[in-house]
Amino acid sequence: MSHARGTLFALVALSTAMVCLGDSRALSLVVSQEQSYFFGTKPANNLLCYTKTISKASALPATVTYTNGNMKNINFVTINADRYSPLGYTVDLTSGQLGTTAISYKLNGPSLLPYAIIVNMYCDP
Known about the structure:
The protein is of the alpha+beta class. The strands form two sheets. It has a four-stranded antiparallel sheet with strand order 1-4-7-2, with no helix packed on it. Strands 3-6-5 form a three-stranded antiparallel sheet, with no helix packed on it. It is built from one helix and seven strands.
């Protein structure tokens, strides 16, 4: 009888934990508290050539891809959350590279973002 109670207690505890963790972290395997990423260095004369906002409550993963139609190299990229949250995100370079005209990043994190993410890319003038 005490073994059955122990098993029942374990099941109740596990169920309670699953309900308590039932927020967006339950659907994401990403473990990060990072809120900002910076890639490259921004020369003083570089211009903002691309911006994209991934809205609050968007589903991740999301891909951000940019090809500069003016054939200007992308030298500096910032990817920032618009507010603090204990749920961070990660960024993976999926294609291209800095110093070229095309680049793509994959953002991984909470399935429903508790914040917006702003991506800015700076290019040669």
